[in-house]
Design a protein that fits this description.
The complex is a heterodimer of chains A (124) and B (406).
Chain A: H1 12-19, E1 32-37, E2 44-52, E3 55-63, H2 67-80, H3 85-90, H4 93-100, H5 109-123
Antiparallel strand pairs in A: 1-2, 2-3
Helix pairs in contact in A: 1-2, 2-5
Chain B: H1 5-12, H2 16-20, E1 25-26, H3 37-49, H4 60-79, E2 87-90, H5 93-103, E3 114-118, H6 127-136, E4 139-143, E5 145-146, E6 151-152, H7 154-160, E7 165-171, H8 183-192, E8 196-200, H9 212-215, E9 219-223, E10 234-238, H10 240-243, E11 256-259, E12 264-266, H11 280-296, H12 298-316, E13 322-325, E14 334-339, H13 344-352, E15 356-357, E16 359-361, H14 366-372, E17 377-381, H15 388-405
Parallel strand pairs in B: 1-15, 3-4, 3-7, 7-8, 8-9
Antiparallel strand pairs in B: 2-10, 5-6, 9-10, 11-12, 13-14, 14-17, 16-17
The chains are: A alpha+beta (124), B alpha/beta (406).
Chain lengths: 124, 406
């Protein structure tokens, strides 16, 4: 068994995003909203969206979590803005990992996938 | 054999996991313990040289296997001060507790409709009783946790256990906080009120002297894998006078003396509670594990873990902005803590990259976490093969993490 994480799991760009995430907060008039719980630790992430003409116009997230779930929330809410619903629904694990730019151990995949799963649920 | 830092290192040589993972600092013993060569060998030997089913064949190989199985039961019984006939082998503590939640109702008095647990129960000692309460229209009550000391509120205990209490089931040592509960006192009070008493001893039997007669409990459950035994083998102790009243939980071969199309004569106790071919190799492995522990002496293990725990606590306190959740008076080698503003998962992943293994999250203790008002903790848990250096490695890694997040 080898020890050690991929070196960049807690790399500078990830930690910086963690300290000042984008899109953290609440929307005034969300058209869709969902709170998802991480079964591993019980953390909750709330995603709010404004959807108009089958496009995501705005997205914000709130709640508490680990570095990986918060950074993933920040990156995903940023990525989905101005995208068609159908495009967002097609996003998967690969897209999330590409956004993060790191490799993640299997046990922590739940943390990074939570926000995308929440977005998809909110879109119905 | 007295354990000190030097002898702990020698004992560790018995555990091949550390040979194959030379940098491993294993501090997750409350989740499961590592296995010594002696336990691995006896299981391998049994399969290679002596394997047969037990209590069935009249040939020598089968008789020898039966003897090994029963000897293991004898070792377990002696270890906890019981009679071998009072030991039922199960899969683990969870199965033992589930067994009780299904078999006890038939012997409960109709006017007793309450089950008393505590706010620090593991899900394995919560869900079975919750489901029983649902099935039989009973009520659950919880002995409160004192939030300042992380100990049970014994005044509240006296309010919760009454003449309406059917069962009192509680955790001996908290798997999250490490608190050693005053179970002898609680059992005594419960008995006074006429309740049946059950002890979840998964975190106590591997680490301290536990004697069922001294504690006075009616039932006690623990898992083999937490006491350097294999997975898939656990123990349910039951006081003979009560076992005699219980019906079997599962039905099948070995549980009956004789059977015809509509009648059954149960086998003797405990065979009637062990239907089907048992985890024979697991039982033999557990027997060996207990012999290994007895050779060191459980009291010596307890003493060493106390020293390590005191050292760990003093060192942890050096970490800036750490919050430790432990009872100052009655603490085992389980320590829960949080670093301010750093999520437990991040702590665990970063510790892992330094070779230090701990557990994080809710530890199957959702109730307790809610009571304390936190999402989860980082939990380190010790065993006799841990050393001062293991703790130093943890502390060094924690200091690095704090710095990284500054």
């Amino acid at each position: 068994m080898e020890h050690g994480l991929p070196k960049n799991l807690y790399s500078k760009h990830i930690l910086e995003l963690y300290k000042s995430p984008k899109n953290y907060g609440l929307l005034e008039n969300p058209t869709a909203e969902i709170t998802e719980t991480n079964s591993l630790c019980g953390d909750e992430i709330t995603i709010q969206l404004i959807v108009k003409d089958k496009k995501i116009r705005d997205a914000k997230f709130s709640g508490s979590g680990c570095v990986l779930s918060l950074v993933s929330s920040s990156l995903i809410t940023d990525k989905i803005k101005d995208k068609n619903i159908s495009e967002v629904k097609k996003m998967d694990k690969k897209d999330v990992l590409k956004l993060l730019g790191i490799s993640v151990t299997p046990s922590r995949m739940k943390c990074v996938m939570l926000p995308l799963e929440a977005v998809k649920k909110a879109l119905g | 054999m007295e354990i000190n830092n030097k002898t702990a290192k020698l004992l560790r040589k018995d555990f091949p996991i550390f040979k194959h993972n030379s940098n491993l600092i294993y501090l997750d013993n409350a989740a499961t313990s590592q296995k010594p060569q002696q336990v691995i060998d006896i299981i391998k030997d049994f399969y290679e040289k002596g394997y047969a089913n037990i209590q069935r064949g009249v040939y020598k190989l089968g008789e020898k296997a039966t003897e090994l199985y029963l000897n293991s039961k004898e070792s377990v019984a002696k270890f906890i001060g019981a009679d071998a006939k009072e030991i039922i082998f199960t899969k683990n503590a969870t199965e033992s507790l589930n067994f009780l939640s299904y078999t006890l109702p038939s012997i409960l008095k109709k006017n007793r409709k309450e089950i008393v647990l505590t706010e620090m129960e593991h899900l394995s000692n919560l869900i079975p009783w919750q489901q029983l309460a649902k099935r039989n229209k009973m009520k659950l009550k919880f002995i409160k946790l004192k939030k300042d000391s992380y100990e049970l509120d014994l005044e509240d205990m006296k309010k919760k256990i009454t003449k309406n209490t059917a069962i009192v089931s509680l955790i001996h040592v908290s798997n999250s906080l490490g608190t050693i509960n005053p179970v002898k006192e609680i059992i005594k009070y419960a008995k006074l009120k006429g309740a049946i008493t059950v002890l979840d001893a998964a975190q106590s039997v591997p680490h301290m002297k536990v004697n069922v007669k001294d504690l006075g409990c009616d039932f006690l459950a623990f898992s083999g894998h937490k006491i350097i035994g294999p997975t898939g083998i656990g123990v349910l102790y039951g006081r003979m006078a009560l076992l005699e009243k219980l019906s079997p939980f599962m039905f099948g071969g070995g549980a009956a003396k004789s059977a015809n199309f509509n009648q059954i004569c149960w086998a003797d106790i405990p065979a009637r509670f062990e239907a089907g071919t048992q985890n024979i190799a697991g039982a033999i492995g557990l027997g060996k594990a207990i012999k290994y522990i007895q050779k060191i002496g459980i009291e010596n293990i307890e003493k060493w873990e106390k020293k390590l725990t005191a050292y760990a606590l003093s060192k942890l306190k050096e970490i800036p902005k750490i919050k430790i959740y432990n009872s100052t008076k009655n603490s085992s080698g389980i320590i829960s803590f949080n670093l301010e503003k750093i999520h437990p998962h991040d702590v665990a992943s970063l510790l892992d990259s330094e070779g230090v293994v701990i557990r994080t999250g809710r530890h199957c203790n959702m109730l307790l976490m809610k009571q304390i008002g936190i999402g989860g903790t980082c939990r380190m848990s010790l065993y006799f093969y841990n050393t001062f250096e293991d703790i130093d490695a943890l502390i060094l890694a924690l200091k690095k993490i704090v710095k990284k997040f500054e």
